[in-house]
Amino acid sequence: MIRFENVGLRYGTGPEVLGDLNFSVDPQSFQFLTGPSGAGKTTLMRLMLLSLRPTRGKIQVFGQDSAALSKNDLTTLRRRIGAVFQDFRLLDHLTTYENVALPLRAMGREESGYRAEVVELLRWVGLGDRMNASPPVLSGGEKQRAAIARALIVRPELLLADEPTGNVDPGLARRLLRLFMELHRLGTAVVIATHDLQLMDQFGFARRLVVGGGKLTILDGSPP
Amino acid sequence: MNEPIVDPVRAVEQEPAFESHARLIPGDSVAGRALVVVIAIMTFLACLTAGAALLVADASQAWRSDVLREATIQVKPRTGVDVDGVVAKAVAIAAKSPGVEAAQALSKTESEKLLEPWLGAGLDLSQLPIPRVILVRLRGQRPEDLPKLRAALASAVPEADLDDHRAWATRLGAMADAIVTLAAGLFVLMIVAMGTAIGFATRGAMAGNREIVEVLHLVGATDAFIAREFQTHFRRLGFRGAAIGGFAAIAFFATASLLSFWWAGSPGDAEMAAMFGSFALRFSGYLALVAVCVIVTLLTGFLSREIVMRHLKTLQ
Questions:
Q1: pLDDT at residue B172 above 90?
Q2: Mean pLDDT of the region A51-64
Q3: Contact yes or no for B70/B138 (Cβ under 8 A)
Q4: What is the pLDDT of residues B270-291, one digit of tens each?
Q5: Which is more confident, A28 or B265?
Q6: In terms of DSSP bridges, do strands B132-138 and B160-163 run parallel, antiparallel, or are they unpaired?
Q7: Phi–psi pair at A10, nearest 5 degrees
Q8: Which residues pair with A65 in a beta bridge?
Q9: Do B221 and A91 touch (CB under 8 A)?
Q10: Measured between CB atoms, which of A97, A155, A182 is closest to B18?
């Protein structure tokens, strides 16, 4: 699904912030991306989302070499990936409903065809009564859930979530993780960036990609 | 991986009322309002230019038509010649000439009156050899009839000169054409200036909405989709500006037309009427102003789309 071969990244002429990355994300797999703050988790997520280009090495996404992708190919691939950003990246002038529906609208679908889906998902993440609220009036946890709903609405083959439970209470965090597990069960590959050890311990079977010192270490999960 | 994660049927059953489908590019910004004002002013000026050009073109057409339907025979008085007899002879020849509708001689007094604008009123001009004038009304604008009349006059009345006014009409026409060409040039310049303003505004909007463009890219929007959103946004602004400017221009011409009726007969009215006719745009003129507004609206949308597409191509 995603394959990194000797990937390195540097900004400008500075030192490499990430180097010698060799790993793959298999279909229907579940893994955590972890490491200390500032280690490069978000950068690695952005490389996987193809919003950053590596300075060396090769990244394959859904079997295609990222270096050879046209803009249209990139758009097509991004529609198969759901992303939850650490800073949410919700559009402030749109309502919660419109933010969640945005990927479907960008795909050119008619609103009458997706309205029910969006409403149901918003209810599921506990935002049923906040559909008309705009992000500036949402709490951090509500923004988090709206961002997650936006990533899930396209039923992605790969979900990249950057600290998806960072702003929610433990109860909702468990619910959201159950949702990720449900997606995983239905066939979605999931990558969750977190430094919440307790959370990772609840999913001992999951593989851990540990970023530190610009390098990546892979720890396989224990069998369920 | 296409299995639905929600149950749409259940969702529809419980669907609440809510607002949706806002514009992806925020519509009401300071830059947007400024652009509406710029487009309104430029559209107003473009419509004024176009309207003035149409008025001058119409008036010029009317002058030329009037002037070319008339000719003048001038009879110069000579010592020992019976001027009245020569004039009567010339009138008779002209009246019989093909293509002539009527020929009418001005009396001596009427001929002297023609000099009043230059010499002033109340002078005794009886001692001056003032030429006598015969007005010839032609049936149409057939230039081939005039040489026959000229030849007939030359052989029978050598004291008579025929002036077909064509040199005068040509000069008037050239002047009117120059005014219309100048107006067309001004119109093009205004459209170019408006296009430049739209270009700056589009680039500004792209910079101001960078976050939106990024998010749209990340959720899988194509460049064409993003450009379409910007195009819709700017076409809406263009329409508002063009409607305001166009309406103001139409109101201006309608008011000017009304005022020209009120001012009829006042000093200077004749000069204004000569230049702009009755100062009344025809229905087709008002349609042309509406067409200017439509062009401005479409141009705004088209230019913004092109600029956005170019900008997006440069993004990694």
A1: no
A2: 92
A3: yes
A4: 666 666 666 678 888 999 999 9
A5: A28
A6: unpaired
A7: -135, 150
A8: A60
A9: no
A10: A97
Instruction: Tell me the per-residue pLDDT of A140-174, one tens digit each, with 9 for 90 and over.
Output: 889 988 999 999 999 899 999 998 887 777 777 88
Substitution target from B218, B223, B310, B316 for chain A, most A beta carbons within 10 A: B218
Average pLDDT over residues B222-235: 89
Of residues A49, A91, A132, nearest to B212 (C-beta): A91
Q: Which two tokens stand for residue B14?
A: 């419980």
Instruction: Give me the pLDDT at residue B200, please.
Output: 86
Q: Which of A11-20, A95-104, B93-102 has the highest mean pLDDT?
A: A95-104
Could you read off the pLDDT of A175-219 as tens digits, one per residue?
788 888 888 888 899 999 988 888 888 888 889 999 988 899 998
Q: Which two tokens stand for residue B37?
A: 């004002």
Strand locations in chain B, DSSP E?
Answer: 70-75, 100-105, 132-138, 160-163
CB B19 within 8 A of CB A95: yes
With an 8 Å Cβ cutoff, are A186 and B5 in contact? Answer: yes
Mean pLDDT of B222-236: 89
Alpha-carbon distance of B56 to B184, in angstroms, equals 12
Residues 111-170 of A with CB under 8 A from B: 111, 115-117, 119-121, 123-124, 128, 131-132, 150, 152, 154-157
Residue B296: how many CB atoms within 10 A of its CB? 28
Q: What is the CA radius of gyration of chain A?
A: 17
* Residue owning tokens 């990533």: A151
A-chain residues within 8 Å CB-CB of B3?
Answer: 155, 186-187
* ipTM of the prediction greater than 0.90, yes or no: no
In the structure encoding, which two tokens stand for residue A103, read together? 């990927």
Quick one: closest CA in B to A53, which residue? Answer: B316
Q: DSSP for B112-160?
A: HHTTHHHH-SS---TTS-PPEEEEEEESS--TTHHHHHHHHHHHH-TTE
What φ, ψ does residue B78 adopt, rounded to 5°?
-125, 155
For chain A, helix, strand, coil in percent to 5 are 35, 25, 40
